[in-house]
């Protein structure tokens, strides 16, 4: 028996899925068998970053919350340590508990943060079970119809699960799904978000972070509904309003005021998180650092704000690789985002070219096109960060 356990654990490392599937078919092998350290095959596969192997083991009934490990590690902790966001999501979808702690009292998110796997931290912190949302797709008690039509559960869950809280990105997620571009649908969705917000505050272990996120999404959905009622059929006017930068530096004032107003309208004034956000944002003049978006993002996702990464100037997506071909200072995740942003970026593009030309020529001669810590202070990353190749 122990020989078979060791063989499965060894095969999990190179990811020999077919051989492990054959071994699991043996009546002498249990999918949750333990090695000498208390590790299951699922833990081995998660730590080694073997997504196919993890999927196979879960299909065979692997216990995602087994914590027989000598130091109390779980499969989710190993997934976080591996830095694989897809495996981390897989563990969460399989029912992994996020609040289990190991022998040193750390959760999976804390372990991932300790080794610098911040993307996995974000996935864990933003996880929301689909089952919690589907509860509202069934009539409860004396209700004649459910609060949320089943067809809206998928699109709404996608919005809830996004780790990119940029309001432009959220509006784009609404716009890309025809089921959501409807006043009646948005009204049902934001009512459910409000109920979830209330539930997070009133439950025994109050979850202020999730409550604030539900409120934020509800606020965005309500704004989408308001613009649809004003005949903004494709939400283009709302997106342009959020992107429009002020003269001089391109700072998106409406977006800043939008987020501040959302935070101000959080209905639970006694919440410590709300008070923390207000203390961080209220003294800051609009246009200065930190922006409301950066403070809110760090509070809700745990991301260290905008370190060692490029963000799309339009939707705020991390890892933007296309740069304005003229000023070389603004990055985008694709041509669509560049086109959406051009109406406001063109007002400052020439100024950025002239101001940064000497430094840029020197930098391009020795490095890839990327801002350095000593770069001049251009508009905020989340609103106007700027990798090469797009033609305007």
TrEMBL record:
Residues 312-349 form the MYND-type domain. InterPro entries: Ankyrin-MYND_dom_contain_2 (IPR052452), Ankyrin_rpt (IPR002110), Ankyrin_rpt-contain_sf (IPR036770), Znf_MYND (IPR002893). Residues 366-392 are annotated as: Disordered. GO terms for molecular function: zinc ion binding. GO terms for cellular component: cilium. Keywords: ANK repeat, Cell projection, Cilium, Metal-binding, Repeat, Zinc, Zinc-finger. This is Ankyrin repeat and MYND domain containing 2. It comes from Oncorhynchus kisutch. The lineage of its organism: Eukaryota, Metazoa, Chordata, Craniata, Vertebrata.
């Amino acid at each position: 028996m122990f020989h078979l356990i060791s063989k499965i654990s060894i095969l999990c490392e190179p990811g020999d899925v077919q051989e492990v599937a054959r071994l699991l078919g043996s009546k002498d092998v249990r999918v949750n068998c333990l090695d000498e350290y208390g590790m299951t095959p699922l833990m081995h596969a998660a730590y080694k970053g073997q997504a196919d192997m993890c999927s196979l083991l879960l299909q065979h009934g692997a216990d995602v919350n087994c914590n027989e490990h000598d130091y109390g590690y779980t499969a989710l902790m190993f997934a976080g340590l591996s830095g694989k966001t897809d495996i981390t999501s897989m563990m969460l979808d399989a029912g992994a508990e996020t609040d289990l702690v190991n022998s040193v009292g750390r959760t999976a998110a804390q372990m991932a943060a300790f080794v610098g796997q911040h993307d996995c931290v974000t996935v864990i912190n933003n996880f929301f079970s689909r089952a919690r949302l589907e509860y509202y797709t069934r009539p409860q008690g004396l209700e004649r119809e459910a609060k949320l039509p089943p067809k809206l559960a998928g699109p709404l869950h996608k919005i809830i699960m996004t780790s990119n809280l940029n309001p432009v990105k959220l509006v784009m997620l609404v716009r890309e799904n025809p089921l959501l571009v409807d006043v009646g649908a948005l009204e049902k969705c934001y009512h459910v978000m409000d109920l979830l917000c209330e539930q997070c505050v009133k439950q025994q272990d109050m979850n202020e972070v999730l409550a604030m996120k539900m409120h934020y999404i509800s606020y965005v959905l309500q704004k989408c509904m308001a613009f649809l009622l004003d005949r903004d059929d494709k939400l283009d006017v709302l997106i342009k309003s959020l992107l429009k930068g002020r003269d001089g530096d391109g700072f998106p004032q409406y977006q800043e005021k939008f987020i501040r107003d959302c935070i101000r309208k959080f209905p639970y004034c006694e919440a410590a998180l709300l008070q923390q956000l207000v203390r961080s944002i209220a003294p800051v003049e609009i246009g200065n650092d930190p922006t409301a978006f950066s403070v809110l993002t760090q509070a809700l996702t745990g991301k260290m704000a905008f370190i060692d990464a490029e963000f799309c100037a339009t939707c705020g997506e991390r890892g933007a690789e296309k740069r304005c071909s003229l000023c070389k200072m603004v990055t985008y995740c694709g041509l669509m985002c560049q086109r959406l942003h051009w109406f406001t970026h063109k007002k400052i593009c020439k100024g950025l070219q002239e101001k940064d030309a000497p430094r840029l020529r020197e930098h391009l001669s020795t490095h890839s096109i990327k801002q350095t810590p000593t770069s001049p202070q251009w508009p905020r990353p989340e609103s106007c960060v700027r990798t090469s190749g797009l033609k305007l």
